[in-house]
Specification:
16% strand, Peptidoglycan/xylan/chitin deacetylase (PgdA/CDA1 family), nine-stranded parallel beta sheet, globular, alpha/beta
């Protein structure tokens, strides 16, 4: 199968959307940003060249003025709250979690409050009041308390739940393989996932499709997929890459 053939199912599905007069909404979330790095430069360049909005989930306990200065002129980039320190507090036999029930709620909420203040001070208007839990996991009891911290949106992984007490803006396709080689997933597999998400939304596009990346651990396979995805979709009439703020406000 050639590189072009790999993308044919996606282009065919997008052409179906175009023929029906429909436009699919996409957004891009990248996790674990801390400071300027060559990988971040590559991500910023790719997205800027494609004219594509980017949301960076930033770890407040580890970031600082260097990242704020670097992003100051990147009009296409927004910042979201990525927990506090990306520290696992779950047991050795449990899935990793920072925002779970392993600590007193007041302690966890206090960290989030501090993180919110740090990112708001550093990034100003680039900071949007959206929480991205590390490892995409958070205790249900904490979710109900997020509005008390002035957090307006929660972003995790998977289909949004209709009964959420806070607005959800989720991701649905993670380009990384976390359980095997810890590199980019095969392109044909990722294309199939994107097509599947599109097909579930053809009759009801209530939820935008979120693409999830992690620039600090991308290998060439991951970078190539992201670059190709932007190339194949950014100019297609049936695709609109949207900013997180516009999706939340719509």
């Amino acid at each position: 199968m050639t590189a072009h053939d790999i993308w044919t199912p996606l282009l065919t599905e997008l052409d179906r959307w175009q023929a029906a007069g429909k436009v699919a909404r996409f957004w891009l979330r990248d996790d674990d940003a801390i400071e300027p790095t060559p990988a971040l430069e590559k991500l910023l360049e790719l997205t800027a060249d494609a004219g594509l909005p980017l949301t960076l989930a930033v770890i407040p306990a580890s970031t600082g003025e260097a990242l704020a200065t670097r992003l100051a002129d990147e009009r296409h980039a927004l910042v979201a709250l990525h927990g506090w320190s990306h520290t696992n507090h779950a047991g050795p036999d449990q899935k990793k979690q920072e925002l779970g029930a392993h600590r007193a709620p007041d302690v966890v909420l206090g960290e989030l409050r501090d993180g919110f203040a740090i990112l708001q001070r550093l990034f100003g208007r680039r900071f949007m009041p959206m929480l991205v839990p590390p490892w995409n996991r958070i205790s249900g009891a904490l979710i109900a308390e997020l509005p008390t911290l002035d957090l307006k949106v929660l972003s995790v992984y998977g289909a949004a739940k209709a009964d959420s007490p806070i607005k959800l803006l989720n991701t649905h396709v993670d380009i990384m393989n976390w359980h095997g080689i810890r590199g980019g997933r095969p392109h044909a597999e990722l294309v199939a996932d994107v097509v599947a998400e599109l097909r579930t939304r053809f009759d009801d596009d209530a939820e935008p499709i979120g693409i999830l990346t992690h620039h600090l651990v991308h290998d060439e396979t991951a970078w190539a997929f992201l670059s190709n995805l932007l190339t194949e979709t950014s100019a297609h009439p049936a695709v609109r890459w949207a900013s997180a703020t516009s999706l939340v406000e719509s």
